[in-house]
Write a structure and sequence with these properties.
Length: 493
């Protein structure tokens, strides 16, 4: 069919015109019947968002994806192009992607009237049928709909009411395409009003001149609930004209969140081969996001993007990689101490409430890391605070006694592999506790668990911790208090 170069050849090929909404609907039906995954790489929405999205497409609805930052709204919209036909025919030279069998512009109608079946056509790939516009307060009606071009009117000596003097905006140029407006509430109310006719009647008006162009556009809007109070709102009549409003959400489990991060993190092949990230570390990274969403210091209305964990994971790998290069090593594993390198990623991804602003972004980020470590610790080891109520001795007694006897551990941030192993193995009782509660034959995993245990026990106030510029120092808990050094532990029992 794509061999057709003229209107006559297109007719002979048996091509049948259909609206973009019918095109999306028909192709979705085929994918559902063949049990093909429609939205690939969109994890966690299989039973919630995607069914609602498919129902909206089957209903031929324009839609609004409503959700907090980092919930794959734009990615979903972009993947809708996979439901379009691979190519569509367009009258050559048309600004409005005119269907050769159903032209809407004066240009295309006149061209077909003049050339008939010899009218030239071109084929447009579905990747070119996606148009996206970020709503900002300075967007004008001329940007979206169009305006009279006085230079055209003067050169062609035509009336301003003549369609040929119009300069079309981005929406008319999106005819037979998917058109996305991101952050819809940021669009001024008077500009939103200009969309009423397009959504309801499918036509446009410019400067009050009598001009009816029956556009065929699939609209997808995205919005953040926070915008409704902070920056603007979707005017009620416009909301009423949007067929389906679909609510997105964050991953509901750590396991799912890890899959998303592993899929989205941008790591080179060299990084993947040289830096090993064990499951414990990957889980702690995700827990930071989950802790942030529940934190009293973080604005829950703003949300905590999935990009926090993705950026943190990338920073973690880079921190381990930098240490590896500085020590002249070819391979390494990410350590608990490397998690200090993710703080900059967290700082920029959280919106703080007043109390959080008082603490400072860096301090809140370290607090979230501390809580994530403690939460993961309780998944593997007994809670020291509960053991105090029992007559049985604590499994951590040998470790705490070792530090009580004046021993100190300085875990350098740039420690090489041999020294890292030597320092951890020097702590009495550390290896025994790991052996008692963690089953592993992997030496690297055991060392990581030993380091993890040190950090976690400091969060539970079993031992003390001082965070220095180049190292983390573990000491007796009373010595830590007396020293007055900075401690980023969670002082919760």
């Amino acid at each position: 069919m794509q061999n057709a170069k003229t209107l006559g050849e297109l007719k002979k090929s048996g091509y049948v015109s259909k609206s973009i909404k019918d095109e999306l609907r028909d192709n979705l039906i085929q994918k559902i019947k063949s049990k093909e995954t429609v939205f690939k790489g969109i994890l966690g929405y299989e039973d919630t968002v995607i069914p609602e999205l498919e129902r909206a497409i089957l209903s031929r609805h324009n839609m609004n994806l409503l959700g907090l930052r980092g919930q794959a709204k734009t990615r979903i919209a972009r993947q809708m192009t996979t439901l379009l036909d691979e190519y569509m025919p367009v009258v050559e030279g048309s600004e409005l992607n005119d269907d050769p069998l159903n032209p809407i512009s004066t240009f295309a109608k006149n061209l077909i009237k003049e050339h008939g079946d010899k009218t030239p056509i071109v084929w447009v790939h579905r990747s070119e049928r996606y148009i996206e516009k970020l709503a900002t307060p300075d967007v004008s009606i001329a940007d979206l709909i169009g305006d009279v071009d006085p230079i055209k009117a003067s050169n062609l000596r035509l009336s301003y009411a003549d369609e040929r003097v119009m300069h079309y905006g981005i929406i008319p140029r999106s005819n037979r395409c998917i058109f996305v407006i991101n952050e819809l509430p940021d669009l001024q109310a008077r500009i939103q009003v200009a969309l009423f006719n397009i959504l309801q009647e499918g036509d446009i008006q410019i400067r009050g001149f009598k001009l009816r162009i029956p556009l065929d556009v699939q609209f997808v809007f995205t919005a953040n609930p926070e915008d409704y109070t902070n920056r603007g709102s979707i005017v009620t009549p416009l909301k009423d004209r949007i067929g389906s409003q679909i609510l997105t959400h964050y991953p509901k489990s750590i396991a799912l969140s890890k899959k998303i991060t592993a899929q989205e993190a941008k790591l080179s092949t060299d990084q993947k081969e040289s830096v090993q990230v064990l499951d414990l570390i990957a889980t702690i990274i995700e827990r930071i996001s989950f802790e942030a969403r529940e934190s009293e210091f973080v604005d829950s209305k703003s949300g905590v993007s999935a990009r926090l964990a993705i950026s943190a994971y990338e920073n973690l790998v880079s921190t381990a990689e930098r240490r590896m290069f500085m020590n002249g090593e070819s391979k390494t594993i990410a350590r608990i101490s490397d998690l200090m390198g993710v703080i900059p990623s967290v700082n920029g991804k959280i919106e703080l409430v007043y109390e959080g602003e008082q603490e400072g972004a860096g301090e809140v980020s370290r607090h979230l890391l501390s809580k994530a470590i403690k939460a993961e610790f309780l998944e593997h080891f007994p809670d020291p605070s509960k053991l105090k109520k029992k007559t049985d001795p604590s499994p951590y007694i040998a470790i705490s006694n070792w530090f009580s006897n004046g021993n100190v551990v300085d875990l350098m941030l740039l420690e090489d592999a041999d020294e890292y192993k030597k320092v951890l193995e020097s702590v009495s009782g550390l290896s025994d506790v790991v052996d008692a509660y963690v089953t592993t034959s992997n030496k690297n995993e055991k060392l990581l668990m030993m380091e993890f245990l040190l950090f976690a026990l400091s969060e539970c106030n079993v031992i003390g911790k001082n965070v220095l510029e180049t190292s983390t120092q573990f000491i007796d808990v009373f010595q830590s208090i007396i020293s007055g050094k900075a401690v980023y532990g969670s002082n919760e029992n």
